[in-house]
């Protein structure tokens, strides 16, 4: 494996994104200099994952400032453009957090705003490295100090963050210690972030893994084939309820029934104390076509409609560990962010 994987980078006036819609077939980059190109990239999941969206939001403010200077926007036009970035996807709280980190610096100028956005990026990489170690330590202390069989859902890796990853940050740390036997990777329909992105990250680094259909996950857990499940998060409420990719709560229910740890790995930037419970987390409803296919490749009759919530909410009582950069909370035991 060559240099560390970075999904998002800033070079002076351009945000360079790995285009995650064409992985694993092609590694291509999208260079973004305009706000509405970034908004489209967020909505199409060219860039995706809560922490990565936080960085995109932060630099989205800088892009808006630069475009305002090029095109002579007034302040209202600039603020409306920043709002479009902030509202591009509703569930991952990091997008709004990233915008709100940089927006107050609009009057301070592009250099100051870009410097703050750079801090958002580097803070996330540092947080992921730290939470990876905390998560590995917590798991090894509670499961066993031997190579482990892990299950993960969706992609919470370097591609979903500024670098290293959250759930995959814990996996990378365990792998570095020689303590990963295999990773069961849920393919994660409909957009296949697991089979396309997580498997790509693990394969390029030689981490043993097997891709499974989402529907296999509860059975794999209940058959005793998994020692621990580790997932990311898009928004964590004050009571510890956690929004993550659709299909996550099924994994958590199986883990609870099987008595194995269900671990959420996320930086504090994903915790939203202003959201009291999971019932208050906005769940993104995406296009039917992602579920049903489009003309010529439909997976259901033309008369069928789809139902495509992109996230679900796992209640805190099912979250054995919330792994952050400053340590591990245990929501299932009542140790929650808002306590
Ligand atoms: C480290 S956050 C990853 C998180 O974000 C993903 O959602 P999406 O691919 O729609 O941006 C998924 O929920 C992951 O767990």
UniProtKB/TrEMBL annotation:
Enzyme class: isomerase
Annotated residues for binding of substrate: 48-50, 89, 193, 244-245
One record GO biological process: L-methionine salvage from methylthioadenosine
Keyword Amino-acid biosynthesis (UniProt): yes
Active site, UniProt feature: 234
GO function terms (MF aspect): S-methyl-5-thioribose-1-phosphate isomerase activity
Cited Pfam families: IF-2B (PF01008)
Enzyme Commission code(s) on record: 5.3.1.23
Catalytic activity of the protein: 5-(methylsulfanyl)-alpha-D-ribose 1-phosphate = 5-(methylsulfanyl)-D-ribulose 1-phosphate
InterPro entries (UniProt xref): IF-2B-related, IF-M1Pi, IF_2B-like_C, Initiation_fac_2B_a/b/d, M1Pi_N, NagB/RpiA_transferase-like
Pathway membership, UniProt: Amino-acid biosynthesis; L-methionine biosynthesis via salvage pathway; L-methionine from S-methyl-5-thio-alpha-D-ribose 1-phosphate: step 1/6
SUPFAM superfamilies attached to this UniProt entry: NagB/RpiA/CoA transferase-like
Keywords on record: Amino-acid biosynthesis, Isomerase, Methionine biosynthesis
Record site: Transition state stabilizer: 154
Function in brief: Catalyzes the interconversion of methylthioribose-1-phosphate (MTR-1-P) into methylthioribulose-1-phosphate (MTRu-1-P).
Family per similarity comment: Belongs to the EIF-2B alpha/beta/delta subunits family. MtnA subfamily.
Protein name as annotated: Methylthioribose-1-phosphate isomerase
Lineage: Bacteria, Bacillati, Actinomycetota, Actinomycetes, Streptosporangiales
């Amino acid at each position: 494996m060559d240099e560390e994987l970075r999904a998002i980078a800033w070079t002076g006036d351009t945000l360079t994104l790995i285009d995650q819609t064409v992985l694993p077939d092609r590694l291509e980059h999208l260079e973004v200099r305009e706000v509405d190109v970034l908004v489209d990239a967020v909505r199409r999941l060219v860039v995706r994952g809560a922490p990565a969206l936080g960085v995109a939001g932060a630099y989205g403010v800088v892009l808006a400032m630069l475009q305002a200077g090029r095109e002579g926007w007034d302040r209202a036009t600039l603020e409306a453009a920043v709002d479009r970035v902030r509202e591009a996807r509703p569930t991952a709280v990091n997008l709004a957090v990233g915008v709100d980190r940089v927006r107050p610096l609009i009057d301070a100028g592009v250099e100051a705003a870009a410097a703050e956005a750079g801090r958002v990026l580097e803070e996330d990489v540092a947080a992921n490295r730290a939470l990876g170690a905390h998560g590995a330590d917590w798991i090894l202390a509670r499961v066993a100090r031997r190579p482990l069989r892990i299950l993960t859902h969706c992609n919470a890796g370097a591609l979903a963050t500024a670098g290293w990853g959250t759930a995959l940050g814990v996996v990378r740390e365990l792998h570095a210690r020689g303590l990963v036997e295999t990773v069961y990777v849920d393919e994660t329909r409909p957009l296949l972030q697991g089979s396309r992105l997580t498997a790509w990250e693990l394969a390029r680094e030689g981490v043993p893994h097997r891709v499974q259909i989402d529907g296999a996950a509860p059975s794999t857990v209940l058959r005793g084939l998994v020692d621990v499940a580790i997932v990311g998060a898009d928004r964590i409420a004050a009571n510890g309820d956690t929004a993550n990719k659709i299909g996550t709560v099924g994994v958590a229910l199986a883990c609870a029934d099987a008595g194995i740890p269900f671990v959420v790995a996320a930086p504090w930037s994903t915790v939203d104390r202003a959201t009291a419970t999971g019932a208050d987390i906005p769940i993104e409803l995406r296009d039917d076509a992602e579920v049903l296919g489009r003309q010529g490749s439909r997976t259901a009759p033309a008369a069928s409609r789809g139902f495509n919530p992109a996230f679900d909410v796992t209640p805190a009582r099912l979250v054995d560990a919330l792994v952050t950069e400053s340590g591990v909370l245990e929501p299932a035991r009542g140790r929650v962010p808002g306590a």
